[in-house]
Structures are given as C-alpha cells and as structure tokens.
Amino acid sequence: MRTKFSGNSAKLAIVTSAILLAATPSSSQTVSDASVPQTGLDIPEELTIFGQNDPNVRRATALVNGDIITGTDVDHRLALIVAANGGQVSKEERERLRTQVLSNLIDETLQIQEAEANEIVISNGEIEQTFNQVAQQNFKQDVSAFDAFLRTKGSSTDTLKRQIKGELAWSRLLRRNIQPFINVGDEEVNAIIERLNASKGTTEYRIGEIYMSAAPEAAEQVAVNMRKILDQIRQGGSFVAYARQFSEASTAATGGDLGWVRPAQLPQSLADAAIQMQVGQVVGPIEVPGGFSILYLIDQRQILTADPRNAVLSLKQLSISFSPGTTEAQATTKAAQFATATQNIKGCGAANEVAASIGAQIVDNDQVRLRDLPGPLQNTVAQLPIGQASQPFGSVTDGVRVLILCGRDNPQSAAAPSFDQIMSQLENERVNKRAQIYLRDLRRDAIIDYN
C-alpha cells in the first residue's frame, strides 16, 4: 500500500489511524454538525467506508522514499526501550510501542534523507565517538561489553548507531538551514537579564519534557497513549529513554532536558504544573498548544541565590557488613552497638581509631557535593555540626554505615546566566519551533510503502 504520510500527531499517526478506521462501521453514518471536527478538509458528513481495516494485519516494514525499514529494525529499536525499562513491559504495551517505534524510524529516515539531500555527511568516526560516549556515560561499560549487553537484550549496536546518525544529521541540518535565519536582538536578552535580577530569590525549575503533537481529531487517542507512557515511567521506566524515542521536541536528543527555566518561560499549563511538583515527580499528560506534554521535575533552585545543596563536603564513611545468615534481630543488635560507638566519635581525627576498634571499614572523600547524596541523607548531613557522625543507615544486605562531617565549603552566591547563554537559549527555542514545522513538511511530502 502506498500512502502520503502526514498529520500533526507524528509519533502516533499510524496507531491513531488504525484505531479510527477500525472503530468506523462500514455502512453510511450521519454525523450532526455539532460533532463534525473542524479539519479544514472537504469531507462530507454522510460517507461510506469501502472495506474494513483489519487490526490483526501488521505492517512491520516500510519503504520511506525508497529506503527500507525492516521488521528487524523495529524489533531492535523496541528492544532498546524495553531494556531501558528493565524488561518490565506488558505485551499490550509492547505492541503499542512497536507501532510508535515504526513511526519514529520513519521520521528518523526522513531526517537522514533530508540531511543527505543537503550534502550533509555524518562520518563513521563521529558516530563511533558518540556511541563510545553513550557506552561509558550511561552504562559504565567499554564498547565490547556494551555490544554484548545490547545483543543479550535482543537489540544491536547498529540500531543505536542509526539513531545517533539521525540525531547528528538533523542537528547539523538545523544549524545550517534554520539557525542562521533565527534572529534574537540584544534588547530581548537585556530584558531577560533585567527580569532575572528583579526575580532574585524566586524559584526556577530544571524540567524534563516529553512532547507529542496532536491534531484535534486525534487528541483523545494521543492523550491515552501518553498516559500509558506515564504509567511505564512511574513503574520504573526510564524517562530519558522514552523522551529520546518519542518526544517530538528537539530536546529529545538530550533525554527531554529543558534545562533551568522559570514559570514565565513555559506555556501557562506547564507553569501551573511545575510550581506544584516535587523534585522527582512525573505528571501528565498536560495539554499545551498543539499537543500534550509529560513533565519530570529534575530539580529546583532559587534564582541568583546560593543553593546550600551545592556545598562541597569532606566526609568519612564508616561501615560494617553482616555475614551471610545474619538474622534481622542479630543485625539490629550489631547496628545498635555500631551506632553507640560512632556517636561517641569526637571529630574526624578520632574516626580511624574508632573504626579499628570496632572492625569497621573507612573511606574518605573530601569532594562530595551535598546535592549528590541520596535525598534522605541530604537533610541529615546538611544539619550535622563539623566532626559529628550521622545516624546509622543501611540494611542487612548492604551493611550499616555512618557519615562523619569533616568539613564544609559553602557555595558562593549564584551568578546570573551570561548574555551569551541567554542568547543561545532563545535561539534554541526558536530553532525548535521551526524544526517541528520542517519535519511536518517532510512527512507531508514523503512517499511511504508499507509491506
């Protein structure tokens, strides 16, 4: 079957079409004026659908302007998402994701084709360099171990490298064809700097976003699918992985990270949600102009105000472990003895002696940022006087630990973002809007053969 691929709901266009067709009876049906969606298309109110769409017939492959997407391509990309969610994806969710993955691969193919048409070439060396960075930063593994990991998950290095190629090609294309024509005036930047200074002490947020566009007639189905994504994330799925695969914003390449923003910089619906969220919370779908968003509050801070969580600490950690077979009661008794001994430590200078007397292991680190500690420990350690030990924490499996605060370097007052940083942010926002239009036009003009 050959069709023009179009529509504002990019990632969900195929699944939405299938659902709408399957739900439409084959006999004629009259629709009242009040319920007719304003599509701008010349569609009669009384119509007949010739034939029925069979939802059990899968079209696993596609030719995109002559370039093939195979069933294996879809399987391997889907496996990346499933792996990022610890394999905990239901059969129903897996089938839904499969349809979305095919849509993503179509977009990716269009982006690579457009870059090549503009004589943009991504070298194998660039792809390998980025691939190695992904292996190191996200999986802490060398390339060979990462390759083996992907194969055990039913994926491959080729599918990840193809995604990397698509992201690099699209980014370079935007820098060439769009960014030079984006104008941000000095007066706009200076106005933002003035507002920042006037807003000193108010809150700004570091936000992750998954955005999907939705035409009015497809809005309900898009929202349903986004709620399913939200459920997967709340059950432990990777927000970054879903953002990279499904978000239509240019921030998809960075896992949906919008960076630090103030409520006034966001659409009103997103701003209203952000100010009510707790750090680590994920909410959505939230309706925004043209579609829906899922928000993840990564962090928050006070504008131009020193964040106490940026304090650099000098810490000693004392720990004891439990031998196999230790009962909860035995561990509790030993932990109580450990707590008594460590609470009597008089300064870090005495810590080594106390550790030796109770058989505890000791680790020193004098470059720990307070914000890098687990959330429950941040408040505890922030309130510790120099030389005092925290309350014990741990488990029978992991052992019990205390932290002793040896020193604290408090942060200096936070500086406002530079003129160039603000200029760059404004440019990126405008490039992102133009990029969405660019991709929409590519979809509209594409010839797709589904097999």
Automatic annotation (TrEMBL):
Chain segments annotated as coiled-coil in the UniProt record: none
One term of GO molecular function: isomerase activity
Keywords for the protein's UniProt record, in alphabetical order: Chaperone, Isomerase, Periplasm, Rotamase, Signal
Domain of life assignment: Bacteria
Record carries keyword Isomerase: yes
Residues in PpiC domain copies: 202-299
Signal peptide segment: 1-28
PROSITE patterns to which the protein is assigned, alphabetical: PPIC_PPIASE_2
PANTHER family cross-referenced by the UniProt entry: CHAPERONE SURA
Protein name in the entry: Parvulin-like PPIase
Organism from which the protein derives: Parasphingorhabdus cellanae
Taxonomic lineage from the root: Bacteria, Pseudomonadati, Pseudomonadota, Alphaproteobacteria, Sphingomonadales
